[in-house]
Design goal:
The radius of gyration is 25 Å and the shape is globular. Helices cover 23% and strands 21% of the residues. Strand 16 and strand 17 form a beta hairpin.
Length: 694
């Protein structure tokens, strides 16, 4: 009995020590690697009419559990060096380098198990149960032959760390409210050290006026549903020991609810808020609200709604109650942006949702994230969310889906892969070659090398004609994307403020420059005048903003698109309009070509540009040099405007066709493209909407 009391006393002392430094405590870095933005307007590139800046807000390094398992040893420092234009190594040993540097970057390692796998790989860590990870990424083990064993680690060990627990660790988890502490192989010091490395690296590399970094991480949550019912808490599941299948989480349908959390300023929490504290995004928002009350501003950016099985943009809250005005304000305060395109697919819309949109099938990933199950389109795509938001607003319930758009990569090698002609995919050893991605044929020997005699969830093989291919979900992945912002200068404050006001847009990887304004006097502007942008700001509102009613007058929209010098010319500019019919509540959408390349004009009946006959030679990926435009500038007035109906408008800019990454892989390997893959794509940009309201 005395021994038990001693153990319990020691346990409570330990818990007490942990509580002295709460995960929610704030550390001020103002005097330690401080990043102090200069006075607004003092950087050489300052522009009151705003500059465009391109970046990536979704980047993983060795601190992410899955990145390290699949061979990534790149540090946050390496990631920032890459973004600034320097070469870094892929886990398979080849160099990765951008065509031109980016303007901003954020390392967003998974807060869940941050740094843990690298700690388990240390054979001297002393924790029983970590032996299978020892020396995981020693140079001699960074081979494709290791894919089978790495996949086994990912599936069996990381997804079930709750098996490493006992009554004492479960008690600590209960008292601290943190599921991670229920596992004997979890090390809070390793977790916090990795988070500190993420912070300090961002602080070191931030260079106001030249290159901006953001301290950030990924909140990696999935739905906890069984038979469409909200599941029990992860902590409760761990404590009972019943039905846990993912780090203490209860059974779930694996519908993606991931977010990236971006900090502003020099104050950060001791730990990130992770799924091991709660898988409920509303609890994340409450944590963010509390931080804001204490002077730490953050935003969360949902991603891969396409893999959410309809759960990202629901019509009810976490408890299953109808969405209210309070919920809408709560969500929009914390999530003003959505990551609409990335390597794991584009979430603008889906052919099922937009059957009259010929471009709705762009880079669709049909399955859920980390799961081979089909992802239900309804509730998973941004355009439908915009329409649903208008409908809820008409019902007096507020609009929780009034967000701006950005793109990102979700790279797990530290290096964004946004160039179709130089695609190295996402997951290191697992998809770092053309053979592994399934874009070039695979030999019988390579089948044996990749499987190692073991079945791997990600790998299956498909016979097409007389050729075998690795047939994986990687075929549906894309060389996407980028976040673009219009900000006065390249500083944290200026760019973060652009996030807040949603003056942002997404691209599929091309650095298309896109301006978009709405107003009632824009049709009076001369498109050739030098102060065009200044007049547009004066007479209208930019992307991401509301346009108030003006005595029933129809709005006009100014669009100015400029091509990426390293990409194909522009083919057309479109406006996507959405509205909800007032009496029936029925949603409508319309895709309108408002400007065409090559001096062509849209057909007034079909609202479509004629084909400009731009071609692609898939044998060498050359494209037409005499088709398309370097710049498209136009003003369009909505002649079908109804001032009594709330609506949204956003711009989609399409380039001429060019080779998809899978075709580039085939060309580089001297083989013909795989017949069942799309050989070409049209790179594009999507603006944040302008919402008409009254």
């Amino acid at each position: 009995m005395k021994n038990s009391l001693k153990v319990l006393t020691g346990l409570f002392i330990t818990v007490g020590l942990w509580s002295c430094t709460s995960p929610n405590d704030i550390v001020d870095y103002s005097d330690d690697l401080a990043v102090i933005d200069p006075e607004p307007g003092s950087t050489p590139g300052y522009n009151e009419d705003k500059n465009v800046y391109f970046g990536d807000l979704h980047v993983h390094t060795k601190h992410s559990f899955d990145a390290y398992i699949f061979g990534t040893t790149a540090t946050p420092d390496d990631a920032y060096e890459y973004a600034k234009g320097n070469a870094i190594q892929h886990p398979l040993g080849y160099d990765m380098q951008l065509r031109e540097p980016l303007d901003f970057y954020a390392v967003t390692d998974h807060g869940f198990l941050l740094g843990s796998v690298e700690g388990w790989a240390d054979p001297d860590n002393g924790r029983a149960g970590t032996e299978p990870f020892h020396n995981l990424n020693a140079p001699e083990n960074l081979t494709q032959e290791s894919i089978a064993s790495r996949s086994q680690l990912f599936q069996t060990y990381v997804r079930n760390i709750a098996q490493y627990s006992n009554i004492w660790t479960r008690t600590v988890a209960y008292l601290t409210g943190d599921t991670a502490r229920g596992s004997t192989i979890y090390d809070v010091d390793v977790h916090r050290t990795a988070w500190k490395d993420v912070i300090q690296s961002a602080q070191r590399h931030n260079d106001p006026g030249n290159f901006t970094t953001f301290v950030a991480y990924e909140f990696t949550a999935s739905t906890t549903r069984s038979a469409n019912t909200k599941g029990a808490s992860a902590l409760g599941c761990l404590l009972t020991g019943n039905g846990c299948n993912f780090d203490g989480a209860p059974p779930f349908e694996n519908a993606n609810l991931h977010r990236n959390v971006i900090y502003k300023g020099n104050k950060f929490t001791v730990e990130p808020f992770t799924r091991l504290k709660s898988v409920n995004p509303e609890n994340l928002w409450s944590w963010m609200d509390d931080l804001r009350d204490r002077g730490v501003d953050t935003i969360a950016i949902p991603h891969n709604s396409n893999g959410s099985n309809g759960q990202m943009f629901e019509m009810e809250n976490w408890e299953g109650l109808p969405i209210s005005t309070q919920y809408a304000e709560f969500r929009m305060r914390n999530e003003p942006l959505v990551e609409m395109t990335q390597v794991k697919g584009t979430s603008e819309t889906h052919p099922i949702l937009s059957p009259n949109d010929e471009w709705a099938d762009f880079e669709i990933m049909w399955q859920r994230v980390g799961n081979s199950s089909y992802s239900r389109p309804f509730g998973s795509y941004v355009r439908q969310a915009y329409l649903d938001g208008l409908g809820m607003e008409e019902e007096g319930r507020g609009n929780p889906y009034k967000f701006g758009m950005v793109g990102a990569s979700d790279t797990h090698t530290g290096a964004i892969s946004d160039d179709e002609s130089d695609f190295h995919s996402k997951v290191g050893i697992l998809d770092g070659t053309a053979v592994a991605r399934g874009s070039v044929p695979i030999s019988d020997q390579q089948v044996q090398d990749l499987t190692g005699g073991n079945a791997i969830r990600q790998l299956s093989f498909k016979k097409i004609g007389d050729r075998n291919f690795n047939n994986t979900i990687f075929n549906t992945w894309g060389a996407s994307g980028l976040a673009a912002v219009w900000a006065e200068e390249n500083t944290r404050d200026s760019i973060f403020d652009a996030f807040r006001r949603k003056e942002t847009y997404a691209t599929s990887g091309s650095r298309i420059k896109l301006r978009f304004f709405g107003g009632y006097d824009l049709d009076e502007i001369d498109l050739a005048q030098d102060n065009l942008v200044k007049e547009a700001y004066k007479k209208g509102v930019p992307m991401g903003q509301d346009l108030a009613a003006s005595e029933g007058k129809a709005p006009s929209f100014l669009i100015w698109a400029m091509r990426d010098k390293n990409a194909a010319p522009l083919q057309r500019v479109q406006i996507i309009k959405g509205w909800v019919e007032k009496t029936t509540g029925r949603p409508y959408e319309e895709v309108i070509d408002v400007a065409c390349s090559d001096g062509l004009t849209p057909d007034p009946i079909t609202n479509r540009c004629p084909d400009n006959e731009a071609l692609v030679d898939v044998s060498d990926c050359s494209i037409s040099s005499d088709r398309g435009s370097n710049e498209i500038k136009t003003i369009w007035t909505d002649d079908s405007f109804d001032s009594s109906v709330k609506s949204f408008y956003y711009v989609r800019v399409l380039e001429n066709p060019s080779c998809r990454w899978s075709t580039w892989d085939a060309v580089k390997n001297g083989t013909k493209p795989r017949e069942d893959l799309q050989p070409t794509i049209q790179e594009r940009a999507w603006s944040s909407p302008i919402w008409y309201s009254y």
